[in-house]
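look at this stuff:

>
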Amino acid sequence: MTRTVIGIAQWLPTCGKPQQNLCDALSFVDDLANRGCDLVILPELWPCGYDPASLARDAAGAAELLSGPRGEALSNAASAHDIWLFAGSVPERDGDDLYNTAVVYGPDGRLQAAHRKVYLYTPLGEHEVFSAGTEPTVLHIDGIGTVGLSTCFDGDHPAYARRLHDLGARVVVAPCAYEVAAESWWNILYPANALANGQWWVMANQCGGELLGMSRVIGPDGSIIAHARRVGDNTDSELLVVTVDLEEGISDAQRTAGALWADPPAATSAAPPVKRSRANTLRSAPTAY
């Protein structure tokens, strides 16, 4: 039995204060690593904060190349603590384009994955700020297997979760800036994704103002294993530490719910005749005028 210690940092970053936010993030990483976490997860767009009214200005002001000073600081934090650092998502500058990019650093400090958010949330104008990514992203972690990346609204799409499953991901890490107004989606869609695909979902959310909090770990059976507080229940930052047996949860899900993602039986060579209802075979009666 191999247990994995997961640490999630939930807080409300300050809009337009990227250096302060970086200092806070590194402090949370230090704290979680010192508590024995193997994986540390930060939320979506923590460098710039998330206020739709100022997102364009805030994201542009916090944008860097992934190889810039922020990336170097995150790399150093991962290697200093010998952890897998799922460093949320950051505003990535690439030429004239700006992306909402989730980044992952390995225990050696190397950038192991960079996922550009595919589904930008148009109701809050994200498509006017960022360019969209084109495909899901997975990476391999020894002792865990294939891990998928899903940034906030990506995971609201069941087909995206299934695509990650088809790519081999039975663990999904999801940095989010999920709003209170969509709380019912948070509570319904993600347990359903986990159950329908036999996946662990590890979700780090911002918390404060209009942002929901309730960061959580969802098991492959759709149950909520642990969660942080909801906005309104707590105004402070919160560090959630959860110890789980990822392999056991995946094995149990395969045994009890594997029919949900199994391939359909092969079609027989002779297809059965199509049964047509009487209503579909009758001609229309002439219309009297």
Q: What stands out?
A: DSSP finds seven helices and 14 strands in the chain. Helices lie at 18-34, 55-62, 69-81, 158-166, 183-197, 246-257, 278-281.
